[in-house]
Known about the structure:
The structure holds two protein chains of two kinds.
Chain A: H1 5-21, H2 25-37, H3 41-59, E1 70-77, H4 85-102, E2 128-133, E3 140-147, H5 149-152, E4 155-160, H6 165-180, E5 188-195, H7 198-209, H8 220-232, E6 249-257, E7 264-271, E8 278-283, E9 286-290
Parallel strand pairs in A: 1-2, 5-6
Antiparallel strand pairs in A: 1-3, 3-8, 4-7, 5-7, 8-9
Helix pairs in contact in A: 1-4, 2-3
Chain B: E1 3-7, H1 12-16, E2 23-33, H2 35-42, E3 56-59, E4 63-66, E5 77-81, H3 94-101, E6 105-108, H4 114-123, E7 126-129, H5 135-139, E8 142-149, E9 158-173, H6 180-198
Parallel strand pairs in B: 1-2, 2-3, 3-6, 6-7
Antiparallel strand pairs in B: 2-9, 4-5, 7-9, 8-9
Helix pairs in contact in B: 3-4
Amino acid sequence: MKVDLKQVEEASKELYIRALKMLPPDIKAGFQRLDRAETNATGKAILGTMIRNITVAEDNTNLLCQDTGIPIYNVVIGSGIEVDGHALKQAIISGCTRATQEHPLRSSVVHPTTRKNLHTSGGRHVPVINIDFSAQAETLSIEMIPKGSGSENNSWLKMAIPADGIDAIKTFVIDCVLEAGGKSCPPVIVGVGVGGTADLCVHLSKVAATRPLGSQCDDPEGATLEAELGAVVNKLGVGAQGLGGDSTAFAVHVETAATHITMNPVAVNMQCHSARRARATFTPQGLTYGY
Amino acid sequence: MAHYEFDMPVTEEQIRKLRINDTVTLHQTLYGIRDATQIHMFDHNRKTRFDMRGHAVVHTAPNVKWVGETEAHPSGYAPICIGTTTSARMERFTRPLMEQYGVRIIIGKGGLFAASAKAFADLGGVYLAIIGGTAALETTWIEQIEEVDLDDLNPESLWKFRIKGFGPLLVAMDSHGGSLYTAVNTAAKDQRAGVLAALGVKS
């Protein structure tokens, strides 16, 4: 299948706006689950307001949160897809710029030292475009994630050592949740990367933080770890917005990679309760939008 | 736990009455301020023409649309989506904002720390918690963007909003040393050992 790059540009624009306005169904279900379990009156009131905000955003076709985030596009190219990779990236950047200027959206992106804002939601290496390949025939998938800064500012890497074992990983995750407190806009999805190189470990923590609720790590060891951490994280009592209660996290997600014999890296990346994402899937049958 | 309705600006006496867990709804005027705004005001010595004495500021950088100056949009900007950012990054600006500009209320999410608590106690100020990430709702409490200053910093300009029923907001830090964040953080740290033990971590 030959990819229509004009359609990719339109979809990249549409995805940014859709992601900012419509929360995925798994996150909405996560809110209902936390709301049913919450025993703290303040926590219950906060969750109620968050749930109401989702409805207000839908009714007014407005953004859920003012933070338009750093735009991330995750592209997966299936087998049999014909596309000029460079032109594909340019189409995505162009769509992202158009969403920002035509909607308009707040450009939340600046140069790291001059702090100059180009008002395009872009700049050097931004939007972040990750490209991977899959065996899925005749399918191109683009996932868009506007990653908010309240949660992104709560990111950590620890190059633990093999002698510290899995205890170092568990302790680090719990300490990061305590350190984040209310700053990461809880309830959060705690994303944990385990193994790899330093940069891969941090990347995996982002993959974990932005995975749909209800999904599992496909490494059984990672799945066990996320179940163990998920079972206890809400006992910390940080609560929604860091104001106490049972709703610190929707879940803990773990992603793993093989690592070096001398290494035991662990990274944590938080996703806030406005856990936004949108997906466009291109097949010979056409373009469909989802999550 | 009492509820208060404030027509802005307010007096020190009104602020001193507030205690943590009270709720407050604001009316009339609210200023929007952010990292770059305060870096320029306090590190680069830039001044604003706004008189913020007795007023409230919210930690925000809004989504706006330039529509040109009209009666409905005197600043030239129409609000699209206005929400609240994490306050922690702006901790060091609480005292100068109160001392130099007479601000009495800071609205934000996630809380502030000891230096702000001391400024609130010394000078008569409070921190009101808004629920982060609920900007679609917050936008419905804002009637108009009346004026804007330091707009070369857009979106981190200094915004003057006309508001109606902005709240209810929770008094999370008061002028008597009370802080809900300190209480929750202390309690959460007390849970740490038990949670690690449940995970089988050897101490």
